[in-house]
Amino acid sequence: MRAYRIIALIVLSILLVLSFGSCKPAKDSTIVILHVNDVHARIHNFAKIAWLLEQERQKNPNVFFMSAGDNFSGNPYVDLYQPKGEPILQLYNKLGLNVQALGNHEFDYGQEVLKSYIERAKFPVICANVKMDGAILPQLKPYVILTTKENIKIAVLSVVQTDLDTGIPSTLPANVKGITFSRGIETALQYKSLKQESDVFMALTHLGFGVDEKLAEQMGELDLIIGGHSHTKVGKPVEVNGVLIAQAGDHTGYVGRVELKVKDGKVVEKHSSLIDIKTIENEIKDVKDIIDEVDKNPFLNQEVTTLSVSLEGKAELGCLITDAVRADLNLDMVFHNNGGIRIGKMFETVRLKDVHAMLPFGNDVVVMEMSPKEIRDFIAYDFKRGNEPDLQVSGIQYTVRHKADFTIEAVDIVTSEGAPLDDAKTYRVGMNNYMVTAYEFQHQDPGKSSHKKLVDITIDYLRKGVDAQQYKGIKRALAKLVN
Question: Which domain holds residue 54?
Answer without folding.
Answer: 25-294
